[in-house]
Amino acid sequence: MTLNRQTIITLALAAVATAAHAAQPTPPYLDDTKTIEERVEDALGRMTLDEKIAMIHAQSKFSTPGCPRLGIPEIWMSDGPHGVRMEFTWDEWTHAGWTNDSCTAMPALTCLAATFNPELAGRYGNVVGEEARFRNKDIILGPGVNIYRTPLSGRNFEYMGEDPLLASRMVVPYIKSLQSNGVAACMKHFALNNQEHDRDNVNVTVDERALNELYLPAFRAGVIDGGVWSVMGSYNKYKGTYCTHNDTLVNQILKKEWGFDGAFITDWGSAHDTREAALNGLDIEMGSWTNGLTWGKSNAYNEYYMAEPLKALVRSGEISEEAVNEKVRRVLRLCYRTNMNRHRPWGSMHTTEHTAAALEVAREGIVLLKNDKSFLPLRTGRKLAVIGENAVKCLTIGGGSSELKPKVEISPLEGLRKRFGEENILFSLGYASGEPNYSNELPSPYDADSLMTAAIETAKLADAVVFIGGLNKNYRQDCEGEDRATYSLPFGQGELIARLSEVNPNIAVVIVSGNAVAMPWAEKAHAIVQSWYLGSMGGEALADILSGDINPSGKLPFSIPFRLEDCAAHSFGETAYPGVNGNVNYEEGLLVGYRWHDTRGIKARYPFGHGLSYTTFAYSDLRTDRRQYAPTDTITVTVRLRNSGKAAGAETVQFYAAQKNPRLPRPAKELKAFSKIRLEPGESRDVEVRIPVANLAYYNDTLRRWVVDADEFAIHAGSSSTDLRGKASFKISESSLAAR
Length: 740
Ligand code: BGC
Known about the structure:
Number of strands: 29
Largest sheet: 6 strands, mixed
Distance between the termini: 75 Å
Bound molecules: beta-D-glucopyranose
Strand content: 15-25%
């Protein structure tokens, strides 16, 4: 090949330019061989005040702008926590209507908690992480770990139940796996978002012991053991100050005590004051000028508390630039962990592994509450009347910010038709709700009496009835922004179940919800199944359980009281729930959930940790490795578990500790460990857990330290918090401050 003169000159010039470019040293903030801290400081040193201010507040509903001049990318966020949410328009709460923004919908977090399987929590986090990465998201707004205090709270379905140990054990693998994709988790809502009613305003009063022993441990685990890269503030107040810029919670506890080095982000619109935001640990402000859910003032980003108003305070010298620098450092650190990490994986979408994980979490989370005379599994070849709106309602939409656009969602009716044969399934709606809506209850378009009559006629034609109802994600059901209106089943379902059982007593009831519901009809049902918002593969998982193809192994992550008044938060009147004049006082203190039921001797209809199987398990020979321990020891507890029935199955063995004479009052017992074991019929295994003595500590609010008393303790092994199958006693030799 011959080259003409012009080509030779062009090539030569290109070579010179390339060499010159190559000779430019890589600036330290872009140099992968430097540490993240070195890169952060270098980037920060190059930024103007305007650029810094831009990095700490939103530029759109779900993004911050990065620093374009330096090539520091925008940060893109998405809800969370059950999958990657559909896209929104730039500046409004309007779905963008893209066609490539679907996801694998994972079961809601209550279902994950009900699996009592931390390994599944890891798989769950990985699915969300891979799909977030594929969809170019840098932060997933989840998981939620607020403690389940009342069954009326609209957002319990996004949280992990009433026990701090369970929530802590489940949140850590979720965060780690999600973040292994170079996508940050944003653990929420810090702290004390235990009700939705008046959430933008309510001031929580809670004693120090309950705060430390119940409401903070899962957050602490997410920070210390999970290494979470971002945390979201809650809307409510604590000690009179909004949690989003609360010195005690954010500066003292989250950042100083726990050493959180990531970015602390508002909930959408939860900042209320520039000085407090500047000084009390807020790092990124999102979504102000909205109420978090509905339309707000458009394109108001310059007016955010952490935008022009903060810049003015820095310019006037009232707030130091160093306060802003500290926020930018944290945002940059998050960038280097996510969108500036050149080695992060590429992610993937809708893979068979994702579908399999969604299915498995759903299967393992479904809880068999009652099964008289082995009514379940349902025998094949019989006519089944499937009745209830939740057999067909799309339950991945609604609920508020955790809504999803799943690529696939198998309804219970589809799942049952496939499993039992179309010809064996009759269906009738039975009752109907209105369209999902976050701020209003919309009326159903159907006539309730006609629906009930049709359902009763259908029930008469079948050998057995499977009622599939519960709550849904409409306003005041399981939905953010407001609490449930009542503990009872809505839309006349209670009466419907009673009427159906009169014409066909062979009835099983499946409750789809993220919350406990009143079950005055429980005696009428032969079997009761607590199902959840099960995501993409829900119908298949439910059919697996009802048909017996999969043996149920879920356990309740919260107690189901007989009556609302039996629940601690509802035992003290309005001051404890829903609050009076914007104040809610957690008068029950430490006694939340089973801690209340056990200590006060108030029986729950179904206790925390309860869940039946199609097989039975025998416990024997519970023992500790010693009779006495020193404060720094670890207790090894062992129990023999045997599958004493005829089907293979899994049991979650729960270990509860009780102290004999505590110096400060303690709940009757507390969950200290659990282990899920799968056994073939007749198979036995020793189940062993290790409990550091330090984990027997309680929080001494005078000393402001965790303390273990020299005392006698008992460990119970149980199949639920009330079905205890063995007890071993031991002593702690001396009192000590626990290292934690
Ligand atoms: C919710 C958050 C959510 C945010 C963004 C708020 O209304 O409380 O949990 O992450 O909106 O959608």
